[in-house]
UniProtKB/TrEMBL annotation:
Its main location: membrane. It comes from the Eukaryota. Keywords: Cell membrane, Glycoprotein, Membrane, Secreted, Signal. Residues 1-22 form the signal peptide. InterPro entries: CNF-like_PLA2_Inhibitor (IPR050918), LY6_UPA_recep-like (IPR016054), Snake_toxin-like_sf (IPR045860), Toxin/TOLIP (IPR035076). It comes from Mugilogobius chulae. Gene3D superfamilies: CD59 (2.10.60.10). This is UPAR/Ly6 domain-containing protein. PANTHER family: COILED, ISOFORM A, LY6/PLAUR DOMAIN-CONTAINING PROTEIN 8. It is found in: Cell membrane; Secreted. GO terms for cellular component: extracellular region; plasma membrane. Residues 23-110, 113-184, 186-282, 284-361, 362-458 form the UPAR/Ly6 domain.
Amino acid sequence: MKTSVQLLASVALFLCFHSAAGLQCLSCSDSTCSSQTSVNCSSWMTHCQSQASYASYNNFTHLSCAYPLSCKSAGSELISYTYGSSSFYFNTACCNSNDCNTANLSAPSAGSLQCYSCDSDTHNCTSKVTCRDQELCFQTNYNSTKTLHGCASEGLCSDYSLSRRFFREPLSCCNTSLCNGPVAGLQCWTCSDHLCSSETLTNCSSEATHCVSNTFESHTCEDGVYNYSSSSRGCAPASLCTAAGSHVVSYKYGSRSYGEHMSCCQSDLCNDLTGARAPSAGSLRCYSCNPYMFECSANVSCDAREVCAYVHTNESSDTRPFFGCVSENLCNNPSLSQKYFDFNDSVSCCNTSNCNVPDLGLQCMKCTDSSCSSQTSVICSKQAPFCYSSASTGSYSYSAPFSSIRKGCADASVCTAAGSQFVSSNHGSEYYMGNVTCCDTDFCNAPNVSVIPAPPAGSLQCYGCDSYTKQCSMNVTCSVMETCSSASGKS
């Protein structure tokens, strides 16, 4: 019995001694390893390791005990690459003696080897990158669709099982400067900004089958003037340019215009902006309707590549007119027109001046500015059975006072019957006064309209609330046409 107890005690002592005699490694708790401590590793951890990462998105340093899977033997392993805007550097050093993981895995130093670096999105392969120490030039087809060129560590070049974790394909590597040049492709002009104010000669990758030039213009003037234009040139894959030639999409209606002009070609430096410039003005004139204002006019001039167009659009159960100029490829082509317009109907076209006559409704005058210093005639859609004129003045939330005169076509949301209506409100920090006159004969709203004078003050006083502070302590003196009122709402 005593012998058995002594044996068990010896085994326990051996196990304790064996556990205590495990490897000791340095460890750190933050990403910069600013402080280090020595820790006892578990018996199945066979190495100490140091790790350092310097990538375009994250940097860190790490010290720890390591499993055999992480460190198969003492030594170091480097995984690094650079291409385009992507950069990755991960260095691991393994050792198998107590607190041996003191390796200073500092940021990699630059080497002397230079390689071509291709941007996989723009197919521009003219940029060059200086590799880090222990890197070679490489090229590969990423996912069989994109060509990548840049620098890579020797391990990524020689070990396919390693490279496919990062690129899905093996790397083809070489060790002399600029030895990874792309397969000779087109030379195209590229632009440095959205106005194409300067140009650069670019060697395209093998995926670029065409040179392309593109101009874009957009204009709208409904709730204020908005203009945008851009120009671009570059290399283009077959998915963008299916064949050499020009592609034009343009339209004008109401206060909106849009033009996209793309030209594809297949010879070196063929993509100047001549082929993508907006076409010159043509002689065709068309009726133009604003589907958001119920108004049409016969004063739009089409470009040389445009024809007159018409369609009745459906929006929120209301039928609104669409009349204007469009490029011919939008005619009777719903699959294309639906990409540019928010309706599903096919666009019908004709090619003689003012051939797209809308269903003639009431004719009204319309102001061209907020003071109505000039007017133009418009044709109303069937959904707008009234002409209207309005004059208003007011101020919102302590802003400067405003005054406005408007004329145009009106639907039932504005006019329910012929006649005039005065509207006013005043609650302290904001006030509004407006007079709307509705009529239902051609050009009945032609007479001049003046900004309405404020009606005389009455004797009635009401509480007024500040819309910013939500305070309702001020007194407001009403006009002779006003009464006290209250309402609640969500801010």
